[in-house]
Design brief:
This protein is α+β, with helices and mostly antiparallel strands. The chain has a domain at about 45-175 and about 190-210: Serine Threonine Protein Phosphatase 5, Tetratricopeptide repeat. Helix content is about 40%, strand content about 10%. It has eight helices and six strands, in the order ββαββαααααααββ. It has a two-stranded parallel sheet with strand order 1-2. β3 and β4 (about 65-70) form a beta hairpin. The protein is elongated, with a radius of gyration of 27 Å. It starts with 8 loop residues before the first strand and ends in a 6-residue tail after the last strand. This is PARK2 co-regulated. InterPro entries: Parkin_co-regulated_protein. One of its GO terms (cellular component) is cytosol. One of its GO terms (molecular function) is Hsp70 protein binding.
Length: about 240
């Protein structure tokens, strides 16, 4: 006597097929919103490999740094600053070191040259954040903090581009790590660095665009108990 082999039937939820005995309800697809999106080799890397960047590795006892072949203040910021920001997507040595440290050096000594270049920095910043790579995002957040504080009115200049910059941050704002702050290898946990850096960045953006003389607002009304009724006690004196 032959027995029929029952086959499982994949069915979507809340359909007629899902009510059958041999139906297996297929769950929703896993969200890939937090998955990394590998970036292509940056233009910054190509310029460095062709020897068109005035930088070199400087080996020191406390770690590697970069040595500038020219004075940073003489650089054309319209050309070099967006180029270094393009290197934020890099994670390999020495490109990551050159891009990160080069940006901080240029922001330290850029002064009024930084503000006119802001529109050219938005696309590299957005590309770096869209990688979803925690190392890249941490570096980008710290660069944004430095950028906002590097010159006057930079925070105000970034406001029109918040929709492009803060979209990725909105996805990660509730992401937390339950791991310890240090891994077994002794390196600091990237997830915790990212979490703390993200919450500091909006504060500095808010400080930079906050009016220096905010409008004076009256204090809240205070209430006194008068039997069962509560009557407001006005503290704001009318002139």
């Amino acid at each position: 006597m032959s027995m029929r082999r029952k086959t499982e039937l994949n069915a979507e939820g809340f359909t007629v097929k899902a009510t059958l005995k041999n139906a297996v309800v297929v769950g929703p697809r896993a969200s890939r919103v937090f998955h990394e999106c590998p970036a292509k080799p940056s233009t910054f890397r190509k310029y460095y490999e062709r020897g068109e960047l005035p930088i070199a590795v400087k080996h020191e006892n406390r770690g590697n740094s970069i040595a500038w072949k020219v004075d940073v203040e003489t650089l054309d910021y319209h050309h070099y600053l967006p180029l270094f920001f393009d290197g934020l997507t890099e994670t390999a040595f020495p490109y990551e070191l050159f891009a990160r440290q080069g940006i901080h050096d240029m922001l330290d000594r850029g002064g009024p040259k930084i503000l006119p270049v802001i529109p050219q920095l938005i696309m590299p910043i957005r590309n770096a954040l869209n990688t979803r790579n925690h190392q890249v995002m941490c570096t980008t957040v710290k660069v944004l903090q430095h950028l906002v504080m590097s010159a006057d009115k930079v925070g105000e200049a970034l406001v029109p581009y918040f929709r492009q910059i803060l979209t990725v941050f909105n996805l990660f704002k509730n992401k937390r790590s339950t791991e310890s702050s240090f891994s077994p290898s002794g390196h600091q946990n990237t997830h915790l660095i990212f979490s703390s850096s993200f919450h500091i960045a909006p504060l500095q953006l808010e400080i930079s665009i906050k009016p220096s003389h905010p409008a004076e607002t009256p204090p809240p009304l205070q209430y006194e108990m008068n039997g069962r009724n509560r009557e407001p006690k006005e503290k704001w004196k009318k002139i």
